[in-house]
Amino acid sequence: MLKLRLKRIGRKRAPSYRLVVMENSARRDGRPVEEVGYYDPISKKSHFDIPKIEKWLSYGVQPTETVFNLLKKAEIV
Q1: Which residues pair with 47 in a beta bridge?
Q2: What pLDDT was estimated at residue 52?
Q3: Which residues are CB-contacts of 49 (< 8 A; sequence separation ≥ 6)?
Q4: Which of 11, 19, 46, 50 has the greatest number of C-beta atoms within 10 Å?
Q5: 12: left (phi over 0), alpha (psi -120 to 50) or beta
Q6: Distance in angstroms (rounded) separating the CA atoms of residues 46 and 24
Q7: How many CB atoms lie within 10 A of CB 69?
Q8: DSSP letter assigned to residue 30
Q9: Left, alpha or beta for 40 (phi > 0: left; psi -120 to 50: alpha)?
Q10: What is the block-wise mean pLDDT of the chain (77 residues), using blocks of 10 residues?
Q11: Rounded to 5 degrees, what are φ and ψ at 3?
C-alpha cells in the first residue's frame, strides 16, 4: 500500500522533511516512488506540488496524519 508521508533530511537538531510517496512497509528514509514537496518545521516554510499530490490522492494513496494536517493547513485537502 502506498502512503503519502514525510522523509527526514537535514542535520542533527535541524530537521527538514520531504513529502514523498512511499510503500508503507519501507523504512523512513528509504527510496521513494516520487517526491512531491518539502516542509521545514523550523522556519515553517513548505512547498507542495499540488497537481502531483492531487494525482496521487486520486489513485488512492493515503496520507499519514501529520501529512493530512499539513495539506489541510495549505488548503489542498
Answers
A1: 38
A2: 96
A3: 36, 37
A4: 19
A5: beta
A6: 23
A7: 12
A8: S
A9: beta
A10: 94 95 92 95 94 96 96 92
A11: -130, 150
Please check whether the domain covering 2-74 is classified as CATH 1.10.443.10: no
**39 alpha-carbon distance from chain centroid:** 8
Distance CA 43, CA 16 (A): 10
C-alpha cell belonging to residue 13: 537538531
Q: Are strands 45-48 and 34-40 parallel, antiparallel or unpaired?
A: antiparallel
Residue 62 has a pLDDT of 96
Say if strands 34-40 and 2-11 run parallel, antiparallel, or are unpaired. unpaired
Question: Would you kindly state where each structural domain of the chain is located, as residue ranges?
Answer: 2-74
Q: Is the distance from CB of 56 to CB of 77 less than 8 angstroms?
A: no
Question: What percentage of the chain's residues is helix, strand, coil (to nearest 5)?
Answer: 25, 45, 35
- Distance, in Å, from the CA atom of 49 to the CA atom of 35, rounded to the nearest integer, reads 9
pLDDT at 20: 97
